[in-house]
Design brief:
This protein is an alpha/beta fold and about 100 residues long. It has helices at about 25-40, 55-70, 85-90; strands spanning about 1-10, 10-20, 45-55, 75-80, 100. The chain is about 40% helix and about 35% strand.
Length: about 100
């Protein structure tokens, strides 16, 4: 999993590339959590354009980051998921918690 971040104003955008599964979710979680501790952002955007596969660990990662961001008064969005990832996100109910853009 390749992780790239962009910090602009109070928006943290995390670009993910590769497979988001139980092997990679922990490193993604740790990276995002470290950034949130350093600077409390108002909006966390997960750009999933480069994600080729996601299992339930990815859903857990998203839900956990959502709870963390909400606890500091922020919001979260999912950007650019593929058609198959969008279906998984909708089936999991994630779209009821945050915008998928």
């Amino acid at each position: 999993m390749e992780i790239t971040v962009k910090q602009e104003n109070q928006i943290l955008t995390v670009f993910l590339k590769g497979e988001l599964d139980h092997h990679t979710a922990i490193s993604v979680k740790d990276t995002i959590d470290m950034l949130l501790v350093k600077t409390p952002f108002k909006v966390l955007v997960l750009d999933m354009a480069g994600v080729t596969f996601m299992d339930s660990s990815g859903i857990g990662l998203i839900a956990g980051r959502y709870n963390r961001v909400r606890s500091i008064g922020g919001s979260m969005k999912i950007a650019n998921p593929s058609f198959s990832l969008t279906r998984i996100l909708k089936m999991s109910g994630i779209e009821k918690l945050m915008k998928i853009i």
